[in-house]
Here is the input.
Amino acid sequence: MVSSLPHPTTSAGRDGLAALLARPAKAVVALDFDGTLAEIVPDPEQARAHPGAVPALSALAPHVASVAVVTGRPAGVAVRHGGFAGAPGLEHLVVLGHYGAERWDAVSGTVTATAVPPGVAAVRAELPGFLDGAGAWPGAWIEEKGRAVAVHTRRAADPQGAFEALKGPLAELAARHGLVLEPGRMVLELRPPGMDKGMALAEHVRATGAESVLYAGDDLGDLPAFAAVEKLRSNGVPGLLVCSGSTEVPELAERADLSVAGPSAVVDLLARLAEAVRTR
Here is the structure.
């Protein structure tokens, strides 16, 4: 193991890292976007990948089976905000957007997608009046995500209070229209059921024939991907789980093999991995 790499705290994580380093050409490196490659910001439209993310990924990608960004954002938005299109070294990057319902690959430069369930349009129409009726939480606002709709509470006077107060009613609204509620870091997303980051990741690992996997995330929506890696490990595919450090989501840190201090540290880890696999 390269000494400059951080050391996972679990034996499963150490096995996952060792497998990745031993046969990088058979490894998948998968990462969330917001909070992992990009800092969390009050306005999601202003989020951009860390300046070092593309250079680090470009250095690593030619040496591994696949680099994939797995995100709840629309795939095209993640590509634009990440600066991934046309980046040298990322010719085979894949972005799995909307929890895998959309796929962008650098080879074609196009997005393929499944149909949007009608419940999304119904919730989109009803949600503004619903929040007006909630009344007591000014500052909560709606983000349009194409295949999903999200309510952010980070700008409210009491972000956590608004989050907790709206969680139950929004879950009922989602269920009424055949959707599910996905809580996150001061955000409540209403989206179609039947797809999550774990399913998207597991399918991508299967499709690539990978023999090891690294997944890095920062939020509750990444827990299914963590679970997918844990299941892969039980089936003989080593994996490394990385938490992009957040005091807001202790559930993820508790499951991780390695915790790092946010996107800048994730980028540093990717750069160190790239150096390690290049010099082996």
